[in-house]
Amino acid sequence: MTVTPALQWDIFCRVVDNFGDAGVCWRLAADLAARGDRVRLVIDDAAPLAFMAPGGSPGVAVWPWPGPAAPADVVVEAFGCDPPEAYVSAMAASRTPPVWINLEYLSAEPYVARCHGLPSPQRNGLTKWFFYPGFTAATGGLLREPGLQPARDRFARASWLAGLDVQPAAGERVVSL
């Protein structure tokens, strides 16, 4: 049996507006850590995490910007935030440069399938890879909780609606938010 060693991930996040970027980065960090990897979330404003993830998550270390000096095995640049220049220089000087991923925004637009996985050669000799989450097999997919699909398959919609005293008319669309 081959045992794969845990990877060290650095996820760089700048909070721009409405905390969605912090939420996406936190969810990614927690998911990676739950799979056995080590994650450093480098964020310029950790305040949103106080209400999003007040208990933290095992395996996730939150670092203030600019983060660690030595690069990880995998570096995620969330939404084109550009890791600090000194960190990128350390990546380029590494004997084994890390995998550098530019995590883009979720979209259902057709261009996502064409752009997902494209390399972006950098002037310093590194390659940044574009990762586009999406809804098709040609994209990066979606983060999902373990067991989500089986739970959805077991969900009894009619019973749930009846418990809410909702009785849709034939052909009526029901939307739950």
Main attributes?
177 residues; 6 helices; seven-stranded mixed sheet; 28% helix; alpha/beta
What is the CA-CA span between the terminal residues?
45 Å
| N to C succession of SSEs | EHEHEEHEHEEHH
Tally of DSSP helical segments: 6
Q: Which value, in Å, is the CA radius of gyration?
A: 20 Å
Structural class label: alpha/beta
For the residues shown, what is the average pLDDT?
A: 93
Helical fraction:
25-40%
Instruction: Please list the strands of the largest sheet in the order they lie side by side.
Output: 3-2-1-4-5-7-6
Would you report the number of β strands?
7
Largest sheet: 7 strands, mixed
- Detail the poorly predicted runs: none
Determine the strand fraction and express it as a percent band: 15-25%
| Cα shape | elongated
Quick structural summary:
The protein is an alpha/beta fold and 177 residues long. Helices cover 28% and strands 20% of the residues.
Task: Walk me through the structure.
The chain is built from six helices and seven strands, in the order βαβαββαβαββαα. By secondary structure, it is of the alpha/beta class. A seven-stranded mixed sheet has the order 3-2-1-4-5-7-6, covered by helices on one side. The mean pLDDT is 93.
Could you outline the blueprint of secondary structure elements for this entry?
Blueprint: E1 8-13, H1 20-34, E2 38-43, H2 47-52, E3 60-64, E4 74-78, H3 85-93, E5 99-103, H4 111-115, E6 119-121, E7 127-131, H5 148-154, H6 157-163
